[in-house]
Amino acid sequence: MTEPGPDLESALALIADVPDFPEPGILFKDITPLLADHTALTDVVAALSAPGRDADGRPVVDKVLGMESRGFILGAPVALALGVGFVPVRKAGKLPRATYAVSYSLEYGEATLEVHQDALQPGDRVLLVDDVLATGGTARATMELVAQSGATVHGVAMLMELGFLRGRDALGDVDLTTLLTV
């Protein structure tokens, strides 16, 4: 896990707690104040990009994958910071061409994620980026999509982790970076 420095701490402090959203008993973590602050967003993108770099700061990944939907918001600027391409991982039926698909269980049913079959090449090294690691189901399914493509997961970078849900257990031994654990 990345230890937040003073600038990153200020950025993460902008995440707003919204009680009882989207339903009673849920404490929603609203990242929109962080996204609206240029300095905070810059600091977060730099921190999320770090797992995609070597010790000298050179990119060691070929692509960044962002999971629907807030993973798009964070993953695209991470890809730009690393100088690599961005690949969206979408819910079923949202991509227009041939896809790989993985279905997985949710608390209230099942979901399916897809990625274009030509988005990754065999041997590509990828960094997965999303806003929240909860149970790990979405990240695990995305890792399976990467494997179907013949690429490899170099690491996973999350803005925050809901530690009490133990999502990291679903990811195995992949390099996981989280900027905030709640």
From TrEMBL:
Pathway: Purine metabolism; AMP biosynthesis via salvage pathway; AMP from adenine: step 1/1. It comes from the Bacteria. One of its GO terms (molecular function) is glycosyltransferase activity. Keywords: Cytoplasm, Glycosyltransferase, Purine salvage, Transferase. It catalyses: AMP + diphosphate = 5-phospho-alpha-D-ribose 1-diphosphate + adenine. The keyword Cytoplasm applies. Its main location: cytoplasm. It is found in: Cytoplasm. Residues 37-160 form the Phosphoribosyltransferase domain. Pfam families: Pribosyltran (PF00156). InterPro entries: Ade_phspho_trans (IPR005764), PRTase-like (IPR029057), PRTase_dom (IPR000836), UPRTase/APRTase (IPR050054). The keyword Acetylation does not apply. SUPFAM superfamilies: PRTase-like. Its EC number is 2.4.2.7. Catalyzes a salvage reaction resulting in the formation of AMP, that is energically less costly than de novo synthesis. Belongs to the purine/pyrimidine phosphoribosyltransferase family. Homodimer. This is Adenine phosphoribosyltransferase.
